[in-house]
Amino acid sequence: MGEGGIVRSFRYWHEIVLLVLIGVVFAFAQMFEPRFLQLDVQRELSTHIWEIAILCLPMTLIIITAGIDLSVGGMMALCAVTLGMLFQRGLSPWVAATMGIGVATLCGVLNGLVVTRIRVHPLIVTLATMAAFRGAAEGLSLARPVSSFPEAFGWLGQGVWWGLPVPAWCFMGLLLLTASAVGLSRWGSYCYAVGMNPEACRFAAVPVNRVLLGLYAFSGFASGLAAVLFVARRNTAKADIGMGIELLVITAVVTGGVSIFGGRGNLLGMVLGVLLIHETREFVSWRWSRDELNFVVMGLLLILSVLLHRWLTPANRNTS
Amino acid sequence: MEIRGLSKAFGGVQALNRVSFGIHAGEVHALCGENGAGKSTLIKILAGIIRPDEGEVGFDGRPLAFGDVRRAEAAGVAVIHQESVAFAHLNAVDNLFVGRECCRFRGVLDRHAMARQAREILGRLGEDIDLNQPLEHLPLAQRQMVAIARALLARCRLLVMDEPTASLSAKESKVLFRQIETLRESGVGILYVSHRLQEIFQLADRVTVLRDGCWVSTDPCCDLDETTLIRRMVGREIAARSTARGKGPQEEGPRLTVRGLSRAPMFSDVSLDVYPGEIVGLGGLVGAGRSEVARCLFGLDDFDQGSIELNGVPHPGGSVAASCASGMALVPEDRQHEGLIQTFSIGDNLTLPWLQRFTRRGVLRRSALKTLVTRAIKRLDVRLQSTSDPVSSLSGGNQQKVVLGKWLAGKPSMLILDEPTRGVDVGAKEEVYTLIRELAGEGVGILFISSDLPELIRLSHRILVMSEGKIRGELSGAAMGEEAVLRLALPVGNGQGVD
Fold it and tell me: Which end of chain B is more exposed for a tag (fewer CB within 10 A), N or C?
């Protein structure tokens, strides 16, 4: 059907909705808690969000291909444990961290291989490896934490460079790389194509398996990086790192307008989704100092953003 | 049934504009028009899926309620949709009865009664369908039969059929026609939508033509001939149904040589040659193994035995990327699922296979891709507003042109076309034919699969006919006739004559 008109063909309604919601949160903060908006407060509050944001990058692309990766927390645990054990055996923390990221990347490759070769749905594959990676990490470390890393290593998680926390720079670097891969190279188009119609992709000689393998490996790499930042920030490497983090990540990505059915969504929306969820949570904790309220707020935000998106784009309801 | 002043607009597009005509009981009423003429919209209104903006439909003297499928069914309107709307995971019985299950006591399904009725009604259609198989495992034609059986089961008084024969073989179509005759005699009104004019002249009592959402004419079938009808549908003169062919094979080595290609149990021992500039038709019934051969040639499936040579070079099987790289292209049978990514823009669909070719140091050359799209759109004369519109906004014929354009962009030397005109309207069909001839004129080798016999005969230089996975014979020159093709296409041992 010919769905004309500027209103309907405008593709960034969801991003506008998110911006408005973020604006509402900020306006609220300005009225009741002006100190919340000060830069140093914001920087202080942002410490833990960068790891989640890093995990959101591969998750966005994987969900665009109509897949999902639930095992990010498990891969983080394996990376942290590898890091801790190698450091304990006298390796430099930098080498140990690199090895840890390597292990997490290999875990991602394993996920990718099972998804592409054995053709099991990613939800099942990563549900299984989520438990398996976590179990392996607990078993290897006997659940003992490793700490007392040198101060220079701690800078990675706690340091500030040019006015921003070091993890923030890591995220922005990775975001820039991912965004240019999606926007400039052919791999971005391939992600969307695979998510919308894998059968037509085979007919068009799109290397579906390589796309998926690469994305799950990227997810492993990002999990490793997030784990290293986490360990450096907390100064402990323990197997219970990143418990339940996959749900936070998926919530942020879906709030950002990435369709769980694949093929729709973008990195800009994801970044706004992370920002909205983060600011709302922090504001709620700041004002009412009640953590349990946060879960309710997150759920409401998710539903609200989806509903607003739908009301604003009548075209979505009329097609089919 | 009386349709009065029906209108419907989508966005700014007037899909139906004050359409009025009537359908008598016991009449086969054909509805014709190019894709986008408003036929599908009209059907959806009758089926109760969408509401018209204005107008009304009288059915047996009472107005028909709009926008409610259940009430339309209860009133006796049954619709067989073009893309058969079915539950692929469920078996034939469940598909027949979904929404109107037979029950014993309170809410306990009477499976025996349903299976019995299903067998009876499918038996009446002359179909031997495995009732326990999920629909997705059945051939397309049998799925269509299930859809028809579902309509019959509803004991309808108006049956709407939207291109029911699009996926049926000649034999199956005949079975269907016989059913239509029976229904007509029992006083059911039938609204029959088809692009196949032959069928219309064979079946219909009256013909209504729609063009751009407007009613054009309603006439008894015997007052019309094919040319008049086409002219009314298109609104312009079509370069008559010329049988002029391209210049045919040139004196060179073959583009494609296939020897003893087999893939159990689909087909075996398939050998053929396609020369530059030659259009080789591949005829046969649906399920004869033609599409499977095409898939193997293109590398979508592996083959068990045999060899493929492309331009004299041995070609490995099993890799679409290798096929593309060496200049082969396949326009697949199922446009919706295999040919296009519906939500992608027209431009993105056109360029998808060629992204790697247009990459420099990992970065896509957007301007080069844009040129590619502009050139393809121009050559194919696709009617569109913007190349960034989703491809789903185009009509069937224009979508098919996009699929063709996607492969032509790679300048193939060997082109395989699997039912390239299925669901395409008359005007666009002619354009596709012209394009195929032009390509052959440029030296491209073309393997042309079609179940539409007249078009197969019109276009091909030679016709190979397949049946039950084997090539049964070759026809060329004056020997190419509908009867001859059909005779070869019918399964051996099933000594059924062709009338």
Answer: C
Task: Confirm whether B495 is domain-assigned.
Answer: no
Q: What is the pLDDT along chain B (499 residues), one digit of tens a residue?
A: 777 777 877 655 677 888 888 888 888 898 887 666 788 788 888 888 888 888 888 877 777 777 777 777 777 888 887 655 567 777 777 777 776 666 666 667 777 788 888 888 887 776 677 777 787 777 766 777 787 787 777 777 888 888 777 667 777 778 778 878 888 888 888 888 887 777 888 888 888 888 878 888 888 877 777 777 777 776 654 444 444 454 555 567 788 888 888 888 788 888 888 888 889 999 887 778 888 899 899 988 888 888 888 888 888 878 888 888 888 889 888 887 888 888 888 888 888 888 888 888 888 888 888 888 888 888 887 777 788 888 887 877 788 888 888 888 888 889 999 988 877 777 788 888 888 888 888 888 999 998 777 788 888 888 998 888 888 888 887 777 777 777 787 665 433 333 3
**What is the radius of gyration, based on Cα positions, of chain A?**
20
Q: Which residues partner with B270 through β-bridges?
A: B261
A contact residues 224-283, partner B, Cβ 8 Å cutoff: 263-264
- Distance separating alpha carbons of residues B22 and B191, to the nearest angstrom: 10
A203/B contact by beta carbon, under 8 A: yes
How many other C-beta atoms lie within 10 A of the C-beta of residue B61? Answer: 7
Cα(B216)–Cα(B18) distance, integer angstroms: 11
The pair of three-digit structure tokens given for residue A120, joined into one six-digit string: 């099991």
B384, B414: one domain: yes
B165 plus B285 within the same structural domain: no
Specify whether the CB–CB gap between B1 and B22 falls below 8 A. Answer: yes
Let me know whether B313 and B414 are in one domain: yes
Q: Is the pTM value of this prediction over 0.80?
A: no
Could you give the C-alpha distances from A235 to A90, A93, A152, A157, A238, in angstroms and in order?
16, 11, 11, 9, 10
CA pair distance A280, A254, nearest whole angstrom: 16
C-alpha torsion A289→A295→A297→A298, nearest 10: 130
Closest CB to B355 among A5, A8, A186: A186
> Does one domain contain both B283 and B429?
yes
Q: How many CB atoms lie within 10 A of CB B234?
A: 18
Check whether residue B49 and residue B139 sit in a common domain.
yes
What is the least distance, in Å, from the CA of B355 to any CA of chain A? 6
Interchain CB distance below 8 Å, B341 and A4:
no
- Inter-chain residue contact A5 with B11, CB threshold 8 Å: yes
How far apart are the CA of B203 and the nearest CA of chain A, in angstroms?
31
Q: Report the distance separating Cα B463 and Cα B169, nearest Å.
A: 17
Exposure pattern of A232-242 as b/e (b: 16+ CB <10 Å)? bbbbebbbebb
A1 found inside a domain:
no
User: Residue B180 is part of which domain span?
Assistant: 2-234
Q: In the structure encoding, which two tokens stand for residue A252, read together?
A: 């942020």
Nearest to A185 among B13, B344, B362 (CB): B362
A316 touches chain B (CB under 8 A): no
Buried/exposed code over B135-144 (b: 16+ C-beta within 10 A; e: otherwise): beebebbbbb
Q: How many CB atoms lie under 10 A from the CB of residue B96?
A: 27
Single residue among B202, B234, B266 that ends a domain in this structure: B234
Sort out which chain A residues have CB atoms less than 8 A from B339's CB and list them: 200, 203
